[in-house]
Amino acid sequence: MGRTRSPAITKRNDEIFAQWQRGKTLTALGEQYGISRQVVGRIVAERHPEEDEDLDRSVYRGYLWRLFDEVKELFDAPGYKMSPTGKPAEDPFGDPAEDTNVKLQAAELELKVLESLRKLDARDRPQKTHVTHEVAQQQATAFLAEVRAKIAADNREKERLRRQAAAVPGEVLRELPPGGA
Q: Is position 8 within any domain?
């Protein structure tokens, strides 16, 4: 049986969870409250609205958020490009050049982590539709009727134009203008 927490700790943990929901990172929260990122992760996992049987999901979510924080740190401070001489490469202004490849890879990994979190919460699940088989069949039948009507109209127009343009072999259709004019 776990020990009861003091009201101050409970209040602190509620504040941590609220700030996390508003987007603050686990690392930033740990620094703010003087606790480790792992402790903040446990606090968030305890308060996350999931059933007891989803403990694995909470742990996995914690790992993903920790990975997100670590990748965010890489994105914020990617380090410097190195020149072939082993010294930091310089940008056009003579300052050390940031390693843009690391920054780009970190941004891609952040996106993948966020996609994994969305899948974990089933946020991108296709919306249920209330179209029944009968409604779909009616829509398909109406569409086919429209297509058939358009085809029939096109065929009538082609036949009209064919009759209008019909020529008897050897018949003069029109005179050509003289060639030397």
A: yes
In a domain, 34, yes or no: yes
Number of domains in the chain: 1
Compute the residue count for the chain.
181
Q: Which long-range contacts (CB under 8 A, 24 or more apart) does 41-49 make?
A: 41/65, 41/66, 43/13, 43/16, 43/17, 44/16, 44/17, 44/20, 46/13, 47/13, 47/14, 47/17
Best CA proximity match to 113, nearest among 60, 77, 76: 60
Closest C-alpha among 40, 99, 29, 110 to residue 71: 110
Q: Which domain holds residue 29?
A: 1-49
Instruction: Let me know if residue 82 belongs to a domain.
Output: no
At 53, the pLDDT band (50, 70, 90 cuts) reads very low
The answer to whether residue 131 sits within a structural domain is: no
pTM of the predicted model as reported, rounded to 2 decimal places = 0.45
Kindly report the CATH number assigned to the domain that includes residue 33.
Answer: 1.10.10
How do residues 119-167 score in pLDDT, each as one tens digit? 876 666 666 666 677 777 888 888 888 989 999 998 898 888 877 776 6
Q: What angle, 0 to 180 degrees and rounded to 10, lies between the N-to-C axes of helices 37-47 and 7-21?
A: 90
